[in-house]
Amino acid sequence: MAEKITDSKLDPTDLKILGLLQENGKMSNADLAKKVGRSISRVHTRVKNLQTREIIDKFTVVLDPKKLDRETLAFILVTVRYRVPGKSKVLSQREFCQTIGQHHLVQGVHVLSGEYDVLLKVRAKNIDEMNRFIVDYLRELPEVDRTLTMFAMESYYDSLELRELGSTLF
Length: 170
Prior knowledge:
Layout: H1 12-23, H2 29-36, H3 40-52, E1 72-80, H4 93-100, E2 106-111, E3 118-124, H5 127-137, E4 144-151
Helix pairs in contact: 2-3
C-alpha cells in the first residue's frame, strides 16, 4: 500500500531524503531507499510529496563559472529610488527585484533591511563586462539611486545547500 504523507511537519526520513538529494540530485529512488531504510515505493511517494508541497523547489545542475567564462563575481548593494521622476506611481521594490532578476548576469536578488535596499549577486566574464553591466545598465535604470560594488577576490564556500536539517545545535 502506498504511503500517504499529508502532515506539514518533516520527519527524520524526509530530512534524510532531502539531505541525500542535496548531495546528489540524480540519486535514484532505489539508492535513496537503501540509505533511508524504506521501500522504493515509499521513497518515491515521499519525494513526490516533497515536490508537491514545494519543499523541493526543483532539481538543477551546479555549473563551474570558471570553466564557463563567468569568473568575475561581484556583490552589488543598491539603493532604490521609490519615487521615480516623471512617474506618479510609487515604485514597488518587488517589481524592481523581479525586473533586475531577469538580467542574464544576475544570479541572486535579495531585499535587505538597513541602508541599502537590494543585494545583487552578479557573475560576468571579466571586469569590462561587469563595468558595462553596472555603468551602462544598472545605473541607467531610473529606479536606481546609488550602488556599491564589492568584487569577490576568492570564493571559499558558496552553496545552495541547507545543512543540518532538523538540527537545533550550532
